[in-house]
Specification:
- It contains no helices and 29 strands.
- A hairpin with a 4-residue loop joins strand 13 (136-141) and strand 14.
- The chain has 299 residues and is mainly β.
- 0% of the residues lie in helices and 61% in strands.
- The strands form seven sheets. A five-stranded antiparallel beta sheet has the order 1-2-29-28-27, with no helix packed on it.
- The protein has strands spanning 3-11, 17-31, 38-44, 47-52, 57-62, 67-73, 78-84, 87-92, 97-102, 108-112, 117-123, 126-131, 136-141, 146-152, 159-162, 165-170, 173-177, 184-189, 194-200, 203-208, 211-216, 221-227, 238-240, 243-248, 253-258, 263-269, 278-280, 283-287, 293-298.
Length: 299
């Protein structure tokens, strides 16, 4: 078993900083079919589910054994997924559908959405997907299994639910939408546009052409930026173990960003082409989008 050292920067009470070490363990490498391009993972029911981009399957993994125990046929070019209403919701980029897969019966329903969905989440009782090709955010009503609302967002890419709102990225930056009133509450400009999303206890984080931008949900403004090597070839981050983990696709690595200092404090080797990081029960699940395995880390 390999071990990677993460150096965490901890802010002191007087504003000074001290370094503390934390061992991040590579818990498992979970093999999937060759050339399947596992893209993203999410928990649902008793399993962890992984969308395979190239072979159009939703794979289910037993997190206790770190073994693949089954799979369900879904749409083409699948990646972003989330759990809600007893099902996994998976965006099928090349089919322009969202697959709704029951976590108990494993049956799939295909829901038509607008062109080229890029990301999907489940929040505030609905599934939300970005339609990059149409320049829209779509809200799917799970009671009717169809799109109920649409918002124009040029180059719509990432979406996350946090702080009572849905946050969607695009060419102009970030739109904050109230899921109750369906109104756009704020537009946060981001130079060069924004792509992928994550949320920490006090911030929304989006990837940009140069790295990360941190958004304060109280003021709806960018409170900090974090430059990253290899940007814009960075993927979908997540908040794990008190840090923001950012996949660096071309470098086959993960940049660890400390929110206390808004700096990269460590880099962790990952599989081939990591694209999406997901916090599942405190562990980071990192599929190798350009490979054939899933790396599971415990911070």
């Amino acid at each position: 078993m390999r071990r990677f050292l993460l150096v965490l920067l901890v802010a002191g009470a007087a504003g000074s900083a001290a370094h503390a070490a934390l061992q991040a363990h590579l818990v498992a490498k979970i093999a999937v079919a060759r050339y399947s391009s596992p893209c993203a993972a999410s928990a649902g029911g008793r399993f962890v589910w992984v969308a395979e981009y190239s072979q159009s399957y939703l794979v289910r993994v037993d997190p206790h054994t770190n073994k693949v125990v089954g799979k369900v046929k879904i749409g083409n070019g699948s990646c972003g997924l989330a759990y809600g209403a007893g099902a996994m919701w998976v965006e099928d980029t090349n089919s322009s559908t969202v697959s709704r897969v029951s976590v108990t019966t494993f049956k799939r329903r295909a829901i038509k959405v607008d062109a080229i969905p890029y990301d999907t989440t489940f929040a505030f009782g609905s599934a939300w997907t970005t339609a990059f090709g149409a320049g829209e955010l779509d809200r799917i009503d799970p009671a009717r299994n169809r799109v109920a609302n649409r918002w124009r967002v040029g180059g719509a890419t990432g979406v996350v639910g946090a702080f009572g709102s849905v946050w969607v990225t695009g060419l102009n930056g970030v739109e904050r939408i109230d899921p109750a009133s369906k109104k756009v509450l704020a537009t946060i400009p981001v130079t060069g546009g924004a792509s992928w999303t994550a949320a920490s206890p006090d911030s929304v984080w989006v990837t940009t052409a140069t790295g990360l931008a941190r958004i304060d949900p109280q003021s709806n403004t960018i409170s900090a930026t974090v430059p990253l090597d290899g940007a814009p070839k960075i993927g979908d981050p997540d908040f794990v173990g008190g840090m923001i983990w950012v996949p660096q696709i071309a470098a086959n690595s993960i940049a660890i960003v400390d929110p206390a200092s808004n700096t990269v404090v460590s880099t962790v080797h990952a599989g081939i082409g990591p694209f999406v990081i997901t916090n599942i029960a405190g562990d980071a699940w990192v599929p190798s989008w350009h490979g054939s395995d899933i790396w599971r880390f415990s911070p």
